[in-house]
């Protein structure tokens, strides 16, 4: 898993969100934006509890990919 926090001026950006325990270290709403390098589960699994249910729109940036991490859910055997 991977994640990197970048603080610049007053903005906090999370680059990748691979750790499942990110909410133990950061509360939802802590980040102004997310940057994903790619959409494998070990780079996105911590994103969901940090982003949804916050109220404010939090942008997520990443490379173009029509399936995103959706293809991992459709083909779970790839994770075996």
From TrEMBL:
InterPro entries the record matches: RibonucZ/Hydroxyglut_hydro (IPR036866)
Name of this chain's protein: Protein phnP
């Amino acid at each position: 898993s991977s994640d990197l926090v970048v603080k610049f001026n007053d903005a906090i950006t999370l680059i990748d969100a691979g750790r499942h325990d990110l909410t133990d270290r950061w509360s939802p709403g802590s980040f102004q934006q997310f940057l994903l390098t790619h959409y494998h589960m070990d780079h996105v699994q911590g994103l969901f509890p940090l982003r949804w249910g916050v109220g404010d729109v939090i942008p997520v940036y990443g490379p173009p990919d029509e399936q995103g991490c959706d293809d991992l859910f459709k083909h779970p055997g790839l994770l075996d």
